[in-house]
Batch of 3 targets.
Target 1
Amino acid sequence: MKVATGLREVSDEFFQFMQQLGIECVKLDNWKLLMSEPGACGIMKVDELRKLTEWLGRYEIRPYVFLLPQGPNTQYWNARFGQSPEADAEIENVCETIRICGGEGIPVVEWTWSIPDVWGRVPGPNTAGRGGAQVSRFNEHLLEGQRHPLAVDMDADTMWKNLTYFMDRVIPVAEQAGVRMAMHHHDPPTEFLSGEARILNSFEGMKKFVDYIDSPANGLNICQGTLAEQNGVDVLGTIRYFGERDKVNHCHFRNVKGQVPVFDESFIDDGDVDMYEAMKVYKGFGYKHCMMPDHVPSMTDDPKGRGSLAYAVGYIRALMHVVGEL
């Protein structure tokens, strides 16, 4: 296993901070820096990637995951709406980006498939976690009558049709490039969100996804917090199922309190999942990719979130040490 985090800042100061925490790898999501066209479109710029890789290397950190651009008007935005000339052009750009990742030694590409994506969190000061830390809360009851500004009504069959069209084009390219694709299952895992069917919101949906193309290039980013948000889920059993089939290509190792329709994204040691038992599951099936914190609470006098990040990374490293991975 490898300790990783997202590349929140691009500076010597932050790189040194990561090195001090013992972070070995990063997920790249610096789209404005790395993509060839405005709005995080086009393909990845090889020269910028090499500059960033060399810079990180001075701090003994390597890029391990690239997150395909998310959000409106980014690299594969139109593909989510179905087949079109614009979607086909975007898919070609994604394929070329994957080839670049493989050629530059980035083994994992994370991606998502949704219009509203992570949407519907409760804003404001009344979302306090332990000690008054600000946590991200989802409450489906408060969303009645609200819609994401770009919402499109889309049933499950249409979602699967659009998704598999993309997979048919992209997964063979990833396999040839030696890249593992890591799909982030739907967060929040509601049945619908702002009119969109959430087809990757359950064990059954996740299984259907990995079974669609039997390839080591087709796998999951197990976001453990998102997994725990699913109603009635066996968190450890689900991780074990996909891990034993070599379908876990990335991991957001985080915790939550509650499940859909209401949950809080808690401190790593203050949620419903026993994280030590979870770490033993990853160890048991021989997981070798990144363990990465995500969605950490906001602590007092910590505007950059470094205290929360350091706490989560330290906890992950301690668990890795206990199971014999450090």
Note: The longest helix spans residues 156-177.
Target 2
Amino acid sequence: MTIEFNCPKCGALIAFDSKHAGKQAKCLACGQKFLIPAESFQKPKKVAPEPKPKEDPIPGFYHAVLVDSFKVFVHPQNVTTLVFVIAVVCFRFVLANACCLNYVANFVIWGWLFGFYLNLISRAAIDDDLLPEIEIGTSITFVLYILGPFFIFLYTLFLVELPFIIGMSFAQDSGITFTNLFFGSTGLHRLLQALLLGGLFLFPAAILTTAVGGTFALLRPDYLLAPLPKALFPYLTTVALLTAVCLLEMQTTQYDPTVEPTVTIARLAMNLFVQVVAIFAMRAIGLFYRHYGCYFKW
């Protein structure tokens, strides 16, 4: 039995034997990859292109990060995503003093935002300048959309900070704690400080690896360090943007009914501004792979 359908990109008529249903194929007219449907004239599901290995760096990294990233805020296809991000930030802002709902809202919203960031990195890495589509899911998939990104971010951070964590465990008898780590000047203090900051420095490369590579197995020191000597200043740009996001987020405050309306508006604006910088930072991480993918070992 033959299954006939149209290419999801160019509309060309395609036919396959029914035994190939569910398999991946490619349109000979436009090259679009898709999954062969089970019945005739069903719309086939597109398969996103995988990052292509590059032989040489692509110029224009700084322009793409600092100039082209502004385009995502005015592109018509990004309106829905941007509105949803604004709604999510406002939801968290308003529920700041809602008793236990504050913790639930923070967990759910940051889980969704982490997933949004991972998708944003992936899309920027594969030559896609659109923001990710909204993924909410229902019932169990909704929970997975929250728990999955949380686990990916925290476990990635744990792996890059593992040398520091091990070092702190051995330094317990020395009276060194996380709170007094940067107040000491001994050799052990300096070593632990270097391990902590070194892990944070590698975090953008690590989260890029898990977002695009799709596995923790690639989080090897030689894989993470390979592109840095050859593209150090572009990488420092990604580190600076991600650091700015973290520092700005630490300065944000949420809704307080006792303050003046102008102060409330300023606080909400600050929360929204953090997400603007976060979009720049996550795109910079993805663009680092797009422009310097030839330096990666994976």
Note: The chain has a mean pLDDT of 88.
Target 3
Amino acid sequence: MTGDDRKSGADVSFVVPARNEAEYLRGALASIAALDTAYEYEVLVVDGDSSDDTPAIAREYGATVVSGPGTSIARARNLGAERATGEWLAFVDADTEVRASYLTDMLGFVEANGLAAASSSCRITGPRRAKLMEATINYVFPRLERPVLPGFNCFVHRRAFAAVGGFPDVPNEDTAFSRRLAGRYPTAYCPSVLVESSGRRIADHGLTGTLWHYLRLDVDRLRSKG
């Protein structure tokens, strides 16, 4: 990865890791294609050696298909970032859908607040525990001293991304990345932006597997907010 802004490229690069995601990918890419924005953007689908129609669906929507080994989502995101030309990187998952104003609103938010990265409110479909995760992301993550930016909805400047070495290839990679990033740069949540994502992998991927550890670290700050 390099630390340049690549001004000659897109304003924003969407990076979508996908392995055998034919069932969901079309919805994600259709939502990106429907963005209402004057900003230039590109879409890179990092295909992890899929055996279904994932690459064909990506090309159907004009996305650049980047072939990856499919060994981890962290490596897929980092590979997409390496190939991206945008000044900003928007990481979304293959089962995440954005609203038409997403790009304009997120860029306006980070630039107005001098941020290196941000996430936003979300709606997660699925069972009851998905709603618990949704509430955690919407009401707990933003209040942490170092906010956790979920990998399915992470908007970050490429210079900051490169400076911290991208997503570490560890369990709960988005938590580790967020904490490392927030230790060096300002990050926050945009409350006016909403994305929708599937809760199908919450139990397997353990997005908040280390949440309570960080809650203990931030307990005094949380109490002071009342």
Note: Residues 94 and 208 are 19 Å apart (CA to CA).
